[in-house]
Write a structure and sequence with these properties.
The protein is mainly beta. The protein is built from no helices and eight strands. The protein has a four-stranded antiparallel beta sheet, with no helix packed on it.
Length: 112
């Protein structure tokens, strides 16, 4: 899935008699979503293991694991924000930036 996509959905299909109820959850949680699983803006926190859960009364629920991998070009976290650093002559300052990407860049270059 591409980072910053406007929308993404994933549908789980299951058959049975009686027809199973299908829901999604983030694996190892008890928070459920309807089927299909929909994301309206894709961010890196979407990445992870999800489970399709198909349940019918009187039967053990069946699950299928799906890993959602979010990929995207590098961008600076908070790049819309401006900040100013000042120091007296001869003093040391520390500059930092947070790069968000998948895969991570091999190198980061500072210019001024």
């Amino acid at each position: 899935v591409l980072y910053d996509d406007d929308s993404f959905s994933l549908e789980c299909l299951a058959e049975g008699n009686p027809q199973p109820r299908i829901k999604w959850r983030r694996k190892d949680t008890s928070l459920y979503w309807e089927n299909p699983l929909r994301f309206h803006k894709v961010h890196y926190n979407v990445e992870g293991m999800y489970q399709c859960v198909a349940a019918s009364d009187g039967f053990t629920p069946k699950t299928k694991d799906v890993f959602i991998d979010v990929v995207g070009k590098p961008h600076l976290d908070g790049e819309e924000e401006r900040s100013m650093v000042s120091a007296s002559e001869g003093k040391t300052v520390q500059l930092s930036c947070t790069i968000v990407a998948d895969p991570l860049p091999r190198s980061i270059e500072w210019t001024w």
